[in-house]
Amino acid sequence: MSDSTNTPFPVVREGVIGAGLVQTTDARELHACLGVGRDFTTWVKKRIAQYGFAEHVDYVVIDSPNRGDRSGRGGDRRSVEYHLTLDMAKELAMVENNERGRRARRYFIEVEKRAHEAAAIDMNALGGMVKRIVAKQLSEVVPALVREQVATGHNAVIQGVSAGQVIEMAGVTARKGLRGLPRWVSSRLYRFHATKGVVVRLASLGSRQAYVFDPMVSREWLMEGGRAEIEQKVAERRGQGVLRLV
Fold first, then answer.
1. Which helix (H) or strand (E) holds 60?
2. Would you say residue 142 lies in a domain?
3. 3-class secondary structure for 10-40?
């Protein structure tokens, strides 16, 4: 779908923002669709500050080594991608206050509407016995499909949280002096998922691949001692030793 200027509307994809799977879109694609006169980096940073958008709530920032920002001095440099929730994308489109912005906003609303319609299954129309049969079949078939997708590499949408996001869920936001902590947390999360019988998948994060963990299982690990392990590891890395209550 595109507007009258033949500039395509941004592609809507499923992605992880915070600890949930939501519909997202690329801010660069939205910038091009809206025909904004300012360069992308200036525009997106100003809008974030101006309207109080929060990282990991309204958007996430991802390193993009394959696309340089040639607008500044130094030539082809590493840039970043901003993945936005559709609520943030609609607001950015609306504040442009022009026909392109209005078209983009209506486009996002239509995408959301279609997604909701596709996901709506009226289980109330089913009798109690049929519900139990369907639930049993789903519990048997869905895990097998997931295992098959992972084994064959056909899992197009990866759901979950990274080790870095789990660290943030534990309350650790300042990462200075904590090099290697995500890998340390990742190994423990992997073992914990194995004890729960939950598959851990791989996702492409920029130019590398990393494990993606189930949000609910990750929260369970934090509550069952993972948070304390992270806090102790952070204290050790920062030269504080093991914290003790006296």
1. strand 59-68
2. no
3. CCEEEEEECCEEEEEEEHHHHHHHHCCCCCH
Q: What are phi and psi of 245, to 5 degrees?
A: -85, 135
Distance of CA 70 to the CA centre of its chain: 27
Lowest-pLDDT range, 31-40, 164-173, 198-207? Answer: 198-207
Looking at the structure, tell me whether residues 89 and 16 fall in a common domain. yes
pTM: 0.47
Q: Which domain holds residue 163?
A: 157-237
Q: Is residue 198 part of a domain?
A: yes
- The answer to whether the CB of 206 falls within 8 A of the CB of 64 is yes
Residue 164 lies in a domain: yes
The type of residue at 230 is I
Is residue 79 within 8 Å of 65, Cβ to Cβ?
Answer: no
Q: What confidence tier does 196 reach under pLDDT thresholds 50, 70, 90?
A: confident
pLDDT per residue as tens digits for the range 142-187: 455 444 444 444 433 446 788 888 888 888 887 777 778 888 888 8
